[in-house]
Amino acid sequence: MKLILSGDTHGTFDLDKIITFFQKQNTTYTKEDYLIICGDTGICGYSETEEAKVRHILRNLPVTTLFIDGNHEDFKKLNAFPVEKWHGGNVHFIEKDIIHLMRGQIYLSQKKKNLAKQDFEKAMSLGVPQADLRGLLQQCK
Questions:
Q1: Is 128 helix (H, G, I), strand (E, B) or coil?
Q2: Can you give the pTM of this predicted structure?
Q3: What is the per-residue pLDDT across 26-42, written as a single tens digit (0 to 9) for each?
Q4: C-alpha distances in angstroms, 28 versus 1, 3, 25, 51, 108?
Q5: CA–CA–CA angle 140, 114, 65 (5° rounding)
Q6: What are phi and psi of 15, to 5 degrees?
């Protein structure tokens, strides 16, 4: 799993930089890799035409796009998407490979979940009361 981080893209305004980045890479990316856009993606909160262009571009990238909302998002529109669980936290699936990471959530990779589960099982085998392990137990779900 590879992570690529980007600042605000403000609709299609800065998406050309992301397209150029992927075109210049000698690395193979898959949908198991993630582009994380840190705010103002233009997926919700711009004109319908602009939003459609942004989704088209992101949908055709070789990676899954994760984004954090910014101050230019239309929160009413964004929050109209169903809330679903993903890697331990709540998200909105805008599309299969375009995922809104909701505020205040913590996401763990499957590897981290497996480690947390092993730690939980070991602590239980050592007699640590389950009540003391609630936080660790939550990470295992």
A1: coil
A2: 0.77
A3: 889 999 999 999 989 98
A4: 11, 13, 8, 27, 24
A5: 85
A6: -65, -25
